[in-house]
Design goal:
The complex is a heterodimer of chains A (625) and B (327).
Chain A lengths: L14 E2 L14 H6 L5 E3 L2 E8 L19 E5 L13 E2 L34 E8 L9 E6 L2 E2 L1 E6 L2 E6 L6 E4 L9 E8 L12 E2 L3 E2 L3 E6 L2 E12 L6 E11 L3 E8 L5 E8 L3 E9 L13 E9 L4 E9 L4 E3 L5 E3 L2 E2 L2 E5 L13 H13 L4 E3 L7 H10 L2 E5 L9 E2 L2 E2 L13 H15 L5 E5 L8 H13 L4 E3 L17 E4 L3 H8 L6 E8 L8 H10 L3 E7 L6 E4 L6 E4 L29 H9 L3
Parallel strand pairs in A: 26-27, 26-35, 27-28, 28-31, 31-32, 33-34, 34-35
Antiparallel strand pairs in A: 1-10, 2-15, 3-4, 3-6, 5-13, 6-12, 7-11, 7-15, 8-14, 9-10, 9-12, 16-17, 17-20, 18-19, 18-21, 21-22, 23-24, 24-25, 29-30, 36-37
Helix pairs in contact in A: 2-3, 4-5
Chain B lengths: L6 E5 L3 E5 L3 E6 L4 E7 L2 E2 L3 E6 L6 H6 L1 H4 L2 H7 L3 E8 L2 E3 L15 E3 L1 E9 L7 E9 L4 E7 L10 E8 L5 E7 L13 E7 L15 E4 L1 E6 L13 E7 L4 E6 L3 H6 L12 E9 L24 E7 L11
Antiparallel strand pairs in B: 1-2, 1-9, 2-3, 3-4, 4-5, 6-13, 7-8, 7-10, 10-11, 11-12, 12-21, 13-20, 14-15, 14-17, 16-19, 17-18, 18-21, 19-20
Catalytic activity (chain B): Hydrolysis of terminal non-reducing beta-D-galactose residues in beta-D-galactosides
Protein name (chain B): beta-galactosidase
EC number (chain B): 3.2.1.23
Chain lengths: 625, 327
């Protein structure tokens, strides 16, 4: 198979040869490795790569994917944002598409563009990063099937190994995996990755943020032993007595030989609660096992059970160890339209959180994540909305461990297709009810679910952000209800098209609705209420929060909200005039059209120090409700 | 001569001097205000204190157009002509302040128990209104400052109302009894009461410089400096001055910049080098809002109505410059 550039233009092509999305479990070759959280089945490809930047698709060198291609190359760090290495202009824009006033475009399949293709493959604004590196297989990977995983790439990527085309992926914020096995050599492998800034997916990724491109999250090789847990679905349920529960498992295995596996569950004090041996098969199920006493998970007591799956060959050789910490909790909506978690009213003291680092953009570190969790705990923040895309894999684990409720949002925002200068004007909205766009958005919903389905912290699947509403988003909602009874769906944008109100979102969600409007809804609430964005913390702000909190104290149907937002998006640069390190925002890079300081709405400054408003947040989030 | 129990009053040809053992105050008729506040040999004023009306536009102010609606107050803040001055020394009321040659009737041995001087300022607004700033000085040097804003129909809401005192050099820090952190009328529930010490004059690093650093519900603030502009002052020991709320409490901010300097910068690094202390003691502070940043107004309870009167009052006690004791 050969790579085709026109995939960039076709909304129906978004994954070519990609391994289907699966759970985010980690695999280890031994118990010792699992205990040390260092797997010999994983080889990081982070670090220095060779690099070629092309301002447009037409300016790419010929045959760059051929191993003999000699460049010339620059060097770039993976992961990083291409713009922050100064190849391409840094640009911040909020609701408009980044080509506003530069290129006239309409999405494929909409009124003014009835043809099924976009124009990105030849577009003047579509810059390209060509990444190349060589690698030898680490010992732990040799002799096994090996895949490559890109944890994040904006916005469309093509992969070649040793001159062979491997695959194509969109959906910038979820892992993309490809099987490398057919083309692998033990040593001297030449890996080439081509990342386009734009593809048809750009229509789906119009989030309010700096618009970057490149391999901005880690790249790694993952080896699969002869029998491998490809997908793990942990199904803990809580019985109506809220004391006992049941645990079921569904596994998908890839197996080249016969074997068996063991399933162990321990509580937090390492007491064994379950040990079962199961025969390896393509799908393996653990029938529901009753736990007479379950220790429930919630924000105050994020109690996790340890599941360990060990995979053995028929001869009893240990092939793979898959540990996963899970929790028992139950979320539902009661007859009074109150969201109940473990039979108690759910209180969301939340924030929206973009992944951000003032020096490296959306390439963030584990230390950043740990610091953010510590800030949450210190300030009574108990919930996070992953605005407006899935976050780094580790973040979900941290939320499980620290009792942070998650609204896990899909990578979807089409703001500029329906809202123009504040007015609702959906004349060329996608995904809308356009068939052409349905597979792509459903795939995003599926990937989000399949990847993160085992995290007790996730209470809500959020269909996306500010994308209006139509049949396609209704289908996303339906997808989650078809596949997951342990969570609620969330989508704010349906308020713009109430015809879909019965089919989209289990909760009534608004943004920035003033307290009077909140109360008006609560007086006749027929769905639980929350504000997925409120208290816009731009500059010196967060005044009047008490008016919302008092309503929460008055109406149990009001579950709470997520402050907009956690951290300023601003970039630390050296000021050429003073030589000082200074913060820069939209428009500071000659980028136009820009939305300037609107990028800075955090309760934290971009350097991760709290704004003065934080003590107010801490106070109100600490009050009983 | 011992003026321990009386103010020494110096009727200058264009000024009024009031002195005691540890203090010397100088009111300038020409300049329309208190020109010098010297305590234990240290000058505390760079320019005459004036009423202040403007706060540097916040992002929310810009978003909801408040900076446009209230724009007149920027002009009023920037230039504030003094319209009238009245003087009372003990029981003697001066119809007109005594300038040369009327001052020929006095000597260098004039005394008083108390002096009251009022400056009336006229705002550059349409319609105009007045603010009266009264200084009441007692024999021990205690100086009570009261600023009264006269509400006027047709005037827009105020960004802030208070007195702005600019000190010649940048403070080493300040201490206050009030609420923790930075607080505004609609964002003070989380402020914990206590006494707090702040190093330097920190400017909160909002991406676009804007109103910052307000402290609501303050009983007193003590500013500590270490430097003066006096070339003959070779003393580098810290020295302090305390501003006490006259009744109840006040709000204050202590920054190295005026609201106009903050207003003029689009980034922190565009602010001029920090070299002064700008103390704003406010009787009315507008809330910051937060519902959104593109139109939502501050909740009505936290507006400052321009059509009604507002007041701020505080006391400077030259004897309190060391340890603060207000209880």
């Amino acid at each position: 198979m050969e790579a085709e550039l026109k995939w960039l233009d076709d909304p129906t092509v978004f994954r070519v040869n990609q391994i289907p999305a699966h759970s985010d479990h980690q695999a280890f070759a031994s118990e010792a490795e699992a205990a040390g959280a260092a797997s010999s089945l994983v080889q990081s490809l982070d670090g220095k790569w060779q690099f070629i930047f092309a301002a447009t698709p037409n300016e790419r060198p010929a045959n760059f994917w051929v191993p003999a291609f000699e460049g010339p190359f620059d060097e770039i760090t993976v992961p990083s944002e291409i713009e922050l290495s100064d190849y391409a202009q840094i640009h911040y824009i909020n609701t408009w598409y980044p080509w506003e006033g530069q290129i006239y475009r309409r999405p494929a399949g909409t009124g003014d563009n009835p043809q099924a293709l976009d124009d990105f493959s030849t577009a003047a604004d579509n810059s390209v990063g060509i990444y190349r590196r060589t690698f030898d297989l680490a010992a732990g990977l040799q002799g096994k099937d090996v895949r490559i995983r890109f944890e994040g790439a904006e916005r469309a990527l093509y992969v070649w190994l040793n001159g062979h085309f491997v695959g194509y992926a969109e959906d910038s914020f979820t892992p993309s995996e490809f099987d490398l096995t057919p083309y692998l050599q033990p040593t001297g492998n030449v890996l080439v990755v081509e990342v386009f800034k734009h593809s048809s997916a750009s229509w789906l990724e119009d989030q309010d943020m700096f618009r970057f491109s490149g391999l901005f999250r880690s790249v790694s090789l993952l080896a699969q032993p002869a029998i491998h847990v490809e997908d793990l679905h942990i199904l803990p349920t809580v019985n109506d007595d809220f004391t006992s529960g049941q645990l079921a498992l569904k596994l998908k295995l890839t197996a080249k030989e016969a074997g068996y596996l063991t399933v162990d569950v321990q509580d937090a004090s390492q007491t064994s609660l379950l040990h079962q041996r199961l025969t390896s098969a393509a799908t393996v199920e653990l029938a529901p096992v009753t736990f007479e006493q379950v220790h429930l998970w919630d924000t105050d007591d994020p109690y996790l059970y340890h599941l360990v799956i060990k995979v053995y060959s028929a001869a009893g050789a240990l092939l793979e160890v898959v540990p996963y910490d899970f929790g028992f909790r139950r979320i539902e909506i009661n007859a009074n339209h109150v969201i109940m978690l473990n039979n108690h009213r759910l209180i969301i003291n939340g924030v929206n959180r973009h992944e951000w680092n003032a020096k490296t953009g959306r390439t963030i570190t584990l230390a950043d994540m740990h610091q953010d969790i510590a800030t949450f705990k210190e300030n009574n923040i108990n919930a996070v909305r992953t605005c407006h895309y899935p976050d780094r894999l580790e973040w979900y684990q941290l939320c499980d461990q620290n009792g942070i409720y998650m609204m896990a949002e899909n990578n979807l925002e089409t703001h500029g297709t329906w809202q123009k200068s504040g007015a609702v004007e959906p004349s060329y909205n996608v995904p809308g009810s356009v068939d052409l766009w349905l597979p792509a958005v459903l795939d995003r919903a599926r990937t989000n679910f399949e990847t993160f389905k085992n995290h007790p912290a996730i209470l809500f699947w959020s269909l996306g952000n500010e994308s209006y509403a139509g049949e396609d988003i209704a289908a996303m909602d339906q997808y989650y209800h078809d596949h997951d009874s342990s969570r609620l769906t969330h989508y704010e944008g349906v308020i713009r098209n109430p015809a879909y109100r019965d089919r989209i979102s289990d909760v009534e969600s608004w943004m920035y609705l003033p307290p009077a409007g909140v109360e008006e809804y609560l007086q006749t609430a027929d769905k639980p209420f929350l504000e997925c964005e409120y208290m816009h913390s731009m500059g010196n702000s967060v005044g009047g929060m008490g008016s919302y909190i008092r309503l929460m104290q008055k109406y149990p149907q009001y579950a709470g909200g997520f402050i907009w937002d956690f951290i300023d998006q601003a970039l630390l640069v050296t000021d050429p005039v003073t030589g000082q390190e200074v913060m820069r925002y939209g428009g500071d890079f000659d980028d136009r059209h820009a939305d300037y300081e609107f990028s800075g709405d955090g309760i934290m400054f971009a350097d991760r120090t709290p704004k003065p408003a934080m003590q107010e947040v801490k106070y109100y989030y600490g009050l009983p409700k | 001569m011992d003026y321990q129990n009386k103010l020494h009053v110096i009727y200058g040809d264009g000024t009024l001097g009031l002195q005691g053992p540890d203090f010397a105050y100088l009111f300038s008729y020409e300049r329309g205000g208190l020109e010098s506040l010297k305590i234990k040999g240290k000058e505390w004023l760079y320019r005459e204190p004036k009423p202040t009306f403007w706060r540097a536009t916040t992002d929310n102010d810009r978003g909801n157009g408040f900076n446009v609606k209230a724009a007149q107050w920027l002009a009023a803040d920037y230039a504030l002509p003094c319209q009238a001055i009245s003087l009372k020394v003990d029981e003697r009321k001066f119809k007109q302040v005594p300038v040369a040659p009327a001052t020929n009737e006095f000597t260098n041995h004039e005394e008083a128990e108390k002096v009251k001087i009022t400056f009336t300022y006229q705002t550059l607004t349409v319609p105009a209104t007045t603010v009266k700033v009264t200084y009441k000085v007692k024999a021990d040097g205690t100086l009570k400052v009261t600023a009264k804003y006269h509400g006027q129909a047709g005037l827009p809401e105020l960004p802030v109302f208070g007195m702005r005192l600019i000190m010649p050099t940048m403070a080493a820090g300040y201490e206050y009894e009030g609420l923790s952190g930075e607080t505004y009328p609609d964002r003070m529930a989380g402020g914990r009461p206590g006494t707090y010490e702040i190093q330097g004059l920190p400017v909160t690093k909002y991406l676009v410089p804007q109103e910052n650093g307000m402290h609501m519900a303050t009983k007193w603030v003590k500013i500590t400096r270490q430097t003066t502009l006096n070339n003959a002052d070779h003393d580098d020991q810290p020295f302090s001055l305390t501003f006490k709320a006259a009744n109840g409490d006040f709000a204050f901010s202590a920054l190295p910049y005026t609201s106009e300097e903050l207003e003029n910068a689009t980034h922190q690094e565009e602010l001029p080098p920090a070299r002064r202390t700008v103390l704003v003691i406010a009787g009315a502070v507008r809330g910051v809002g937060g519902i959104d940043s593109w139109g939502a107004d501050v909740e009505p309870a936290y507006h400052i109505d321009g059509t009604v009167d507002h007041k701020v009052s505080f006391v400077i006690d030259p004897g309190l410059q060391g340890n603060v004791q207000t209880h």
